[in-house]
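Lab notebook page, bench 4
Experiment: in silico fold of construct C2
Operator: M.H.
Input chain length: 138 residues
Purpose: comparison with the prior construct
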Amino acid sequence: MLPVLKAALTLLSLLQLISGRPPMTTSPKLKLSEITHRIQQLNSGVQVPCNDTRVAQVVFTDRKLSEQELLCQAATALTKVTRCRKDYEPFIINLQSLHGKTNCSLSNENEIYLRNFLPELGNFTQGMYRRLAKSAAQ
């Protein structure tokens, strides 16, 4: 019985290790889909990890800013989350690879709880995904 239990724990640990790594997606559509999917997974849980953490608010509806600038701002806001870093690292990696910038301007004047930030980010990335899919279909 003990060897079976050890084997089961080893497999579980291996699965956790593999699932903790950010996926190696290359296409922007796949990255956007991954972000949206991860947000849905976090929101379907009992509580969003570090939901009471405040981050800089990104105005995703600001038409003056490019999508790349907004993605950069979102990544910058999430990098400020120090607790629960491992939960948000896949978001940061995908967002950074989508915008391709090294830095961007982000004001800390207005802050928002992480539990409110994530749905806004999800809506924005889902909209980007739809626009990419629509332009690819044409």
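Observations: The mean pLDDT is 82. The radius of gyration is 17 Å.
Next step: discuss at group meeting.
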